[in-house]
Design goal:
The protein has 380 residues and is of the alpha/beta class. The protein folds into three domains: 13-119, no CATH class; 122-233; 255-378, no CATH class. The chain is 34% helix and 18% strand. It has helices at 13-23, 68-71, 84-93, 100-119, 144-151, 177-194, 196-201, 215-225, 278-285, 307-328, 342-351, and strands spanning 50-53, 79-82, 125-132, 156-157, 163-164, 206-212, 230-233, 255-257, 265-271, 289-295, 334-339, 360-366, 371-378. Strand 3 (125-132), helix 5 (144-151) and strand 4 (156-157) form a beta-alpha-beta unit. Helix 6 packs parallel to helix 8 and helix 10 (307-328) crosses helix 11 (342-351). The radius of gyration is 28 Å and the shape is elongated.
């Protein structure tokens, strides 16, 4: 008799179907995620998936084992859904770099991510909103993927593109008077054209805010959003570089420091990202000012890591605006000197109430202008 060719048992259909569902029809290899149900070029329907074994069916195959190869041959837990290139990568091209523990981990991570995304309810959808303006010589880089990672697992995007309030290809910079004449008007117009219609007509009313711009403009954005919109504001962190909120933070509580004399022009110094001496404010407005300060024990540029700190900051600011109005009367504008994270700027604008609070005269720090200078006024 001739040699008898051993035929590998086929993966049961119900197991293959389960793997397709659990993998979301996408390659499970990290960084690939390619869809396996369509031609990449023509977009026609096709099945280009490989059902690959973590422990090979044969003891002599990739990661094979004299005991486990037979035991796990048809087990769902031993199967990966891969594209042709990634199937080749784990079995031939770089098999030594893909041990069993690593492949089990990538299977678990991918399938947990698909489970998370498919379990999100429709009411958790949100409109992702970008706002950026030139800061010094820097533009405002955003990526939709960064924003999407930041909102998960609490929310997921309503669309695969953001609402973008950027002033495209602007040649104006924040040390120029023309910038402060043009950009606030542009922001207000784009907000009215792109955001308010969504608020009024869309079945999704929630917004996720990602903003990088000079601080007076961020405060202006906050006043437009206000508390009338259901919104979450995100913070760009430096270390690690991310928009994702972290759960833990050692930051101490915010505090409002009152001036010894409240007979002068009311000034609010928001001293969160760096220490600002009173002399710098006096050099702009003169000696006849009363300086109120919101600060904390360790002002630095990357302290605002946790979302609950932003909520605590809102409470302190709301109380501060009420106290300052009570002390100085309602006919005086409040001069605001912000030195704080971008999300805090937006939230400060959101808590300001046009009919109840003092008008805001907002200043910006710019090295080319040798310190703080007046930028925009916000009133009812």
């Amino acid at each position: 008799m001739g040699n008898i060719k051993r035929v590998r048992k086929a993966i049961p259909q119900w197991i293959a179907r389960k793997l397709w569902v659990k993998a979301g029809g996408r390659c499970e290899y990290p960084g690939c995620n390619v869809s396996l149900w369509e031609d990449s070029l023509t977009k026609k329907d096709m099945n280009k998936a490989y059902i690959s074994h973590i422990v090979a069916v044969s003891p002599k195959g990739p990661r094979g084992n004299s005991f486990f190869s037979k035991k796990l041959a048809l087990k769902f837990e031993n199967l990966l859904l891969l594209c042709d290139e990634c199937h080749n990568r784990i079995d031939t091209a770089a098999v030594d770099e893909h041990p069993v523990d690593y492949l089990l981990k990538i299977k678990r991570d991918h399938e947990e991510r698909i489970e998370l995304l498919t379990s999100l309810k429709p009411e958790k959808r949100t409109h992702i909103l970008f706002y950026g303006a030139n800061i010094g010589s820097l533009g405002s880089p955003f990526t939709f993927n960064d924003a999407r990672q930041a909102i998960l697992p609490t929310r997921f995007p309503y669309e695969n593109r953001p609402i973008d309030l950027h002033l495209k290809n602007s040649s104006f910079y924040d040390n120029e008077l023309s910038f402060w004449e043009l950009e606030p008007e542009n922001l207000e117009r784009q907000f009215k054209e792109k955001v308010l219609p969504i608020r009024d007509t869309s079945d999704v009313k929630h917004f996720s805010i990602f903003a990088l711009a000079p601080q007076p403009l961020l405060i202006k954005l906050g006043t437009l959003i206000s508390d009338l919109l259901d919104a979450d504001v995100y913070q760009k962190h430096r270390e690690p570089s991310s928009w994702c909120w972290q759960e833990n933070s050692n930051q101490s509580d915010f505090k409002l420091n009152e001036p010894g004399n409240t007979n002068g022009v009311p000034v609010l110094k928001l001293e969160l990202s760096a220490t600002v001496t009173n002399e710098r404010l006096i050099s702009v407005l003169g000696n006849g000012i009363s300086i109120w300060t919101i600060t904390h024990n360790n002002p630095n540029v990357d302290f605002l890591k946790a979302k609950h700190l932003l909520s605590a900051f809102r409470v302190v600011c709301r109380d501060a605006l009420n106290i300052i109005k009570a002390k100085h009367g309602q006919n005086n504008p409040l001069h605001v000197f912000p030195v704080m994270p971008v999300s805090a700027c937006v939230e400060f604008g959101r808590i300001w109430m046009p009919k109840a609070d003092l008008p805001l005269v907002i200043y910006d720090q710019n090295r080319k202008n040798e310190g703080f200078f007046k930028t925009i006024t916000i009133n009812a």
